[in-house]
TrEMBL record:
This is N-acetylmuramoyl-L-alanine amidase. Residues 23-163 form the N-acetylmuramoyl-L-alanine amidase domain. Its EC number is 3.5.1.28. It catalyses: Hydrolyzes the link between N-acetylmuramoyl residues and L-amino acid residues in certain cell-wall glycopeptides. It comes from the Bacteria. SMART domains: Ami_2. Residues 1-19 form the signal peptide. Keywords: Cell wall biogenesis/degradation, Hydrolase, Signal. CDD domains: PGRP. Belongs to the N-acetylmuramoyl-L-alanine amidase 2 family. Pfam families: Amidase_2 (PF01510), PG_binding_1 (PF01471).
Length: 258
């Protein structure tokens, strides 16, 4: 009897060590990926320092893409949370680490020179590697166009990456990002030039895009920062945060594509 009890006790211990026995024959229809958005960043560092920053400290990302050659590194499993975006908001969701995939691009970002701010261009091969990765992620997580955002979109009061030289239009050509028709923008811009909407209208349209923006009808610094983030993406030639006719046309067409 003592031997039997010992055997039973050891069997129970072994079962506990393996964890509970779970029946996985059934799967619920009501589910989707935890990933709702993909957030793009630049590292502000070279490859060696980027790898150290993203693997040895508290900051992390799911993927890192080098610049020469454009190697894709997976640093965090997609099923786990990476610490890449911090205090953030998009379409009412906050603290987006839990519902996003973070992709860092090796790029120095900018430095202040004697003639103003200088931004480092992105290597074409690096962008092509990014597009291949994005297409795979969008397919596997069943994400719609428009699910790819910049860090500056979700944290416009404190972040500017991936910056004005990031080629959002190239992503649009690959079917990853919505993009308004240039001729339609020009026609609508002419109409808005004759009668510019109010600041409250701009704030409402930016909120429809998904931005966390004030709604008080004043062109304050916070609203300008959000306007600049939007312009950096869709009109990178001028991202001055002004509520102008071209920005109004872009917003209207993006929010009512039909």
């Amino acid at each position: 009897m003592r031997v039997f009890c010992l055997v039973l006790f050891l069997a129970l211990l072994a079962g506990c060590a393996r964890g509970p026995q779970i029946d996985t024959r059934y799967s619920a229809v009501g589910q989707n990926s935890r990933v709702q958005y993909i957030i793009l960043h630049y590292t502000s560092a070279d490859l060696a320092r980027s790898l150290r920053l993203l693997t040895e400290g508290e900051v992390s990302s799911h993927y890192l893409i080098g610049d020469a050659p454009p190697t894709i590194y997976r640093l965090v499993d997609e099923n786990r949370r990476a610490w890449h975006v911090g205090d953030s908001q998009w379409r009412g969701r906050t603290w987006l680490n839990a519902s996003t995939i973070g992709i860092e691009l090796v790029n120095q970002g900018y430095y202040e020179g004697p003639n103003g701010r200088y931004w480092q261009p992105f290597a074409p091969a690096q962008i092509e590697a990014l597009i291949v990765l994005l297409q795979d992620l969008m397919r596997r997580h069943d994400l719609a166009p428009g699910s790819i955002l910049g860090h500056s979109d979700v944290a416009p009061q404190r972040k500017v990456d991936p910056g004005p030289l990031f080629p959002w239009r190239r992503l649009a050509e690959a079917g990853l990002v919505p993009w308004p028709d240039a001729q339609a923008v020009a026609r609508q811009q002419a109409l808005f030039a004759a009668s510019l909407p109010s600041v409250a209208w701009f704030q409402a349209q930016l909120a429809l895009q998904g931005y966390d923006v004030p709604r008080h009808g004043e062109l304050d610094e916070a609203t300008r920062n959000v306007l600049a983030a939007f312009q950096m993406k869709y009109r990178p030639a001028r991202y001055d945060g002004e509520a102008d006719a071209e920005t109004a046309a872009l917003l209207l067409l993006l929010n009512s594509p039909d």
